[in-house]
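Query structure, 196 tokens:
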């Protein structure tokens, strides 16, 4: 039995935090991340605005929780997708899954991969979720022999570009997803067998 199940107050608190985060994502989708209204957020979860501070010390604290929650959503999504055993096919699938997730949840993508909130930096605790994602990406790259830090930097730039183009030009579609095999082939040619 989990601690939350043993402690009804903790369970209620976790449920309220979950409800606040769900409402915050909905407001962010409607108005943009930087324009989340704490008054509207509180009203959406049947609280008065000052009562939000029981759960989040500040708006930046709320963003920190959203950052960690966004990475949990991304990791859960990746876990729900079948992963091929072939290393190259697994790399392609990882990219496809990231582009599709970002296209489906563009506000989450913005929170995780773009610096859109002035003054926001994730806490060490929230950063742990980002490191888990990074570790997964690095493991997949290692399997194809692209484990140099420069390779990882280039790879992350390629994924970011595909995600941004998909979100901006064909949200929910496959226009940039279909380019993944070619992009991965170009990456592997340069990363694993660099031109001399």
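Result returned for the query:
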């Amino acid at each position: 039995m989990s601690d939350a199940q043993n402690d009804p107050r903790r369970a209620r608190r976790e449920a309220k935090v979950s409800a606040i985060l769900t409402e915050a994502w909905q407001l962010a989708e409607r108005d943009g991340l930087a324009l989340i209204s704490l008054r509207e957020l509180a009203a959406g979860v049947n609280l008065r605005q000052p009562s939000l501070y029981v759960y989040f010390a500040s708006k930046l604290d709320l963003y920190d929780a959203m950052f960690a929650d966004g990475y949990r959503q991304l990791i859960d999504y990746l876990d729900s997708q079948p992963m091929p055993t072939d290393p190259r096919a697994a790399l392609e699938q990882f990219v496809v899954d990231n582009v599709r997730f970002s296209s489906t949840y563009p506000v989450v993508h913005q929170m995780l991969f773009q610096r859109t909130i002035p003054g926001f930096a994730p806490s060490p605790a929230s950063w742990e979720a980002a490191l888990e994602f990074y570790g997964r990406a690095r493991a997949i790259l290692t399997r194809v022999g692209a484990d140099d830090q420069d390779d990882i930097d280039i790879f992350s730039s390629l994924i970011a570009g595909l995600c941004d183009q998909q979100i901006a030009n064909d949200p929910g579609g496959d226009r940039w997803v279909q380019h993944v095999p070619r992009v991965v082939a170009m990456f592997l040619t340069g990363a694993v067998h660099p031109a001399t």
